[in-house]
Each structure stands twice: as structure tokens, then as C-alpha cells.
Write a structure and sequence with these properties.
two-stranded antiparallel sheet; 5-stranded mixed β-sheet; mainly beta; about 35% strand
Length: about 170
């Protein structure tokens, strides 16, 4: 995202010890998310400050418009993600074992910008296999019609010659 500061910043310069809640709303374009992301990005963040460490817990959601991998139709999907980050000011300040992502910040830092982290976690929330529904029947390999919309009666009469060598193998 470069050096620009996003709409998702928290002033930590005078942050007192304890738990602090923040709610954010921004446009996907402000986070440099691509055109698939539609509607506002909503983020609910909890900061827990203990000494020189700040633990962030964030829940983020938005909507997206995607193309189905089976039938090629467009569909809308809600995306949500949860992540935790431990911000520390000194390299030795992080616990030896933690499941959190650890980010080092300057001891003189006055803000924490969540923009890049929200952007990355939303991109990771997109499923690898994008399906309009679990029951999607896809496209007919013969005529190319969408089998979710049309009751295709095509049958495959000829065998693909590229598979003949495998058909001849015996697996007994």
C-alpha cells in the first residue's frame, strides 16, 4: 500500500493500559482492494495495552462479487476474517511462543495503521475454489450450456483418444 496512511488508524500516543474498542468503516478502494470487493469494509478492533505491548484483535467483513469456477456466472459472497497482531517496541519484548503475528513498531510511534493488515487478511479470506453454491453443476463439456439453468441432454459419444493408453493398463 505504500506510505499512505489509511482510514484505519488508531492513535496510540496516549493510550492508557487496558482494553480499548474501535469500529471502522471504509471503502475497498481506500485499501487498494481490487474491483471484486464491493460495499464497505467494516472492522471491529480491540486493543489491549499491557506495558509496552499492544495486542490487537480484529474482525473484518465486506462483500465481494466473484466469478464461479464451475459455471462462470457472477455471484455475491460475504467475506469475513479474524486476525490478531502483537505490537512490540523492542525485539526482545515479544513472548518466546505465541500464535499471534508480531510486528515491531518504533517506540516513538503515535499511530497504528491497520489498513495494510486488513487488506492482506481480506485477500486471504477469498476461497481458493470460488463456487456460486456447493451444488453448482457447472458447464456442459459438450455444448457449453450452464447446467444450473438449462437441462442439457448432451451425451458424450466419442471417447477422448488421449486417455486410451490409460484405459489399456490393468490395475489388478
Amino acid at each position: 500500500m505504500g506510505c499512505a496512511v489509511s482510514d484505519l488508524t488508531i492513535n496510540i500516543s496516549k493510550l492508557s493500559e487496558g482494553s480499548h474498542l474501535y469500529d471502522f468503516e471504509t471503502d475497498p478502494q481506500n485499501l487498494e482492494l481490487d474491483a471484486r470487493f464491493k460495499g464497505p469494509v467494516l472492522a471491529h478492533a480491540t486493543l489491549q495495552k499491557v506495558g509496552r505491548q499492544i495486542r490487537l484483535k480484529a474482525d473484518v467483513e465486506t462483500n465481494g462479487r466473484f466469478t464461479c469456477d464451475r459455471c462462470l456466472d457472477e455471484f455475491d459472497r460475504n467475506l469475513s476474517t479474524h486476525f490478531e497482531i502483537l505490537y512490540v517496541t523492542e525485539e526482545g519484548a515479544a513472548p518466546a511462543r505465541t500464535e499471534d503475528e508480531i510486528q515491531y513498531i518504533n517506540p516513538d510511534a503515535t499511530i497504528v495503521d491497520l489498513g495494510e493488515d486488513v487488506r492482506q487478511f481480506l485477500i486471504l479470506a477469498i476461497p481458493q475454489k470460488l463456487l456460486c453454491s456447493d451444488e453448482c453443476r457447472g458447464l456442459c463439456p459438450v455444448c457449453g450450456s450452464n447446467r444450473n439453468k438449462v437441462g442439457c441432454t448432451c451425451t458424450r459419444k466419442e471417447k477422448d483418444p488421449r486417455w486410451e493408453a490409460l484405459r489399456k493398463l490393468s490395475f489388478n
